[in-house]
Records
---
Amino acid sequence: MQLKINPSRSLKGEITVPGDKSITHRAILFALMAKGQSCIRHPLISGVTSTMLSAVEMLGASYFFEGGDLFLTSPGLFELNPPGEPLDCKNSATTMRLLAGVVSAAGITAALDGSDGLRRRPMNRIVEPLKRMGVQIDAAEGGQAPLKISGRSPGQNLKGLHFESSVASAQVKSCILLAGLAADSPIVIVEPALSRDHTERMLRSLGVQIETTWKRGCSLVVLQPGGNAFLRPLDLTIPGDFSAASFILVAALITPGSEVILRRVGLNPSRTGLMVTLQEMGADIQVLDQWEEAGEPVGDIRAAYSKLRGGSVSGQRVVEMIDEFPIFAIAASFAQGATEVRDASELRLKESDRIRMLCAELSRQGINVSERTDGFTIFGNGIAPGGAVAEPHGDHRLAMSLAVLGLNAQQPVLVSRAHILAESYPEFPEVLLALGADVLSLPEENSIGGQLG
C-alpha cells in the first residue's frame, strides 16, 4: 500500500487514539504471569501486540477479544510451558527483551528469535545482567538474537543484582525487573537518566514493593522481590498511546486553521517530552483535563495550528521523547529557525538508523537538514517543498511522520510501503481522513525514490 497525501485544508474534530503500545505489552506479560483470567480494556490491537500474544499463547496462555477488550487466561508464572519452537518476536525488540525477562523468571527453556532487522538489534544489554542473575542465556555472535535461555531446577531462585546501565533503556530495565520477580534478594538498577517507568508503575499497582529515586544525577530503581502479589489477575484500562497521539498533535500544529482534541491520552511524564518541547517552541497545546488510571496519568489534549520557532533538544529530554523524533523533525521542518538535536545516538539502533534515514528522507522532500553522529539540525523556514516519493525503510514511525509532512507541503507526498504503519497505528489513514485530510490509499508501485508527476 502507498499513501498519497495532498496539501490539506484545516483538520477539525475529536479522536481517541489507540491503547498505549508500551503499556499493552506490559499488561499482556503481567496477565501471563498471573494465574487465572485477566481483563485488559482498550488494548492496542496491532501487528506488534499480535506478535506478543502469539508468543504468550506458545507459553501456555489462551485469550479472546470481546467488545474490543482482551481476556487472557494463564496457568501462572511458575506453570508456563516450555515452547516447542522458538518464540518469534518478528521485528519487535520490546517483545524479545521483555519476554526474555519473563522466561528467565519462569525458569523454563526457550529460544527467542525474530526478523533479520531484529537480529541486528543489540541484545547484550539484557544478556549480561541476566547472566549475572544466574540465568543460563546465550546469544549469537556479537550479542544479538537469536537468544537461547535454559531452564533451571524447581525451587531455584535467581540472584539479586546491582546493575549500572550505560544507557537509559526502559526495555533493559523492564527485562531485569521482570526476571527479578524470581530473585532471592533485591534488584537495584542505576540509569544515567530516567527512562519510561510503565513497568514500575504497574508493579506498584499490583502490590510489588518497588521504589524509584533520583540520586547523584542518576535514576535509582530498587525492587524487593518476594510474595505473590504480582500473581493476581489484572483488570485494567490501557490509556491512549501518547506516541500515536503525537502524529495527530503535529498534524494539527502544522496545518493552518486546525484544531483537534485527543481524548484519554496517557500523560506519563517520562513520555511527554515532545509536548513540552513543542510548547517551548510556541505550540498551542493544552491539557484540558487529567486523571489517573492503573497508576498512569491520563488526560484530554487540545492542539491548534501554531507558528513554531526553532528549538533544541538534548540530555534528559531526549529520553523523554525517544520515540517521537521522526514526528518532531516534521514539526521542526515547519518552524522558523534552526532546531538542534543532540545526545540522541540511540536513534541509530531503532527499527532503522533513524538519524540517517530521517535526514535522507527530509532532504528528499526539500528540507534543509544536517546530520551528526548524535543527532541532526533542521534549518526551518516554515515551508516544506514535498513532491517526492518517501521511503519509510520498514519504520512505522517514519512512515506516519512523512505522511504528516504532506499535509502542509507545497506538493503532494507519496509514502511507499505504508503498510508498515499497521505495526502500531492501523487506523492512522482513516483518522486523518475523518479529521479532513486529503489522503488516498493506492496500490504499491516501483516508484521509490522518485519525484511525483
Note: The chain has two domains: 2-19+239-442, 21-117+127-137+157-228.
---
Amino acid sequence: MTMAESNETRLARFTGWFRRRPTSLEFWELLVTDRRVVWCFVGESFKSLLLRADTGERGRREVERSSAERALALDDRNFAVALESLRSVHLREGSRFRRTALTVTWRDDDDASTSVELYSTRSSDSQVDVVEALGEESALSHVDIGVETSGRLL
C-alpha cells in the first residue's frame, strides 16, 4: 500500500531516535502525515555498555518503505496520535556533550497531556530542517513547533 492509497500524505519522517527506559533504550521512528503522527517501535537495547547496540537499523528500513498504515501494523507497540491532538514539537540541538532531544506533546482522549522525549542516536542527522519544515505546514498551524539551537560546546 502506498501513501496515496491510504489517503495520507507523508509530511516528515524523524529517524534515528531513542527513548530512555529504566533498563533499556527503545528505538523509535516517527512518521508525520497530514492526519497523524505514527510512532514506530524499531528495536530495543540494554543500557549496559557491554550489551548496548543500536538494534533499530532493520526496522528503520522497513518503516522507510512503508505507508503510515503499514508502519502502524509492524509492531504491537506502535501507535498513532491524531494531528488535532498534537500540542507541540520541540527540538533541542545537541552539543559536543549532549545529545539532540526531540519532545512531542499531545492531548490524550481523557484531555490529559502526554509528553515524550526522544534522543538522537549517534548516526542520526540533526533534523532541524525537518522540524522547521513542519512549522510551515498548514495542517500543523495549531501546533507549537520550535527549534532551540545551542551555540555552546556544552
Note: The radius of gyration is 15 Å.
---
Amino acid sequence: MEPIKHEEGIFYMEKDGRRIAEITYAPAGDGTINANHTYVSDELRGGGVAGQLLDALADYAREKNLKILPSCSYVVAKFSRGSKYDDVNALAK
C-alpha cells in the first residue's frame, strides 16, 4: 500500500507519479473544514483506502482542533454509520 501524503487541502496516495486516491477539504470558517471530495482509483476500490484517507483527515482535524463538515457523499455516509467520527463531525449532536 502506498503511503498517505498531505498537502494543504488534500490527503492523497500516489503511484508511479500519478494520484491514485484522494480526499480533499477546504476551510469552512468557525474552526471547521469541508470534506468535499473523495476519489479512489479502480485498482484500489474495495480495499479500504477511502476509509484510510478519511481516518487521516479525522486525525488531522483532531490535531488542529477542527470539526469536519461532510459534503462529500462518501464522508456523509461514513459519518452517518456510527460514532467513530462524532468528535470531529460538525453536524453531530
Note: The chain has a mean pLDDT of 96.
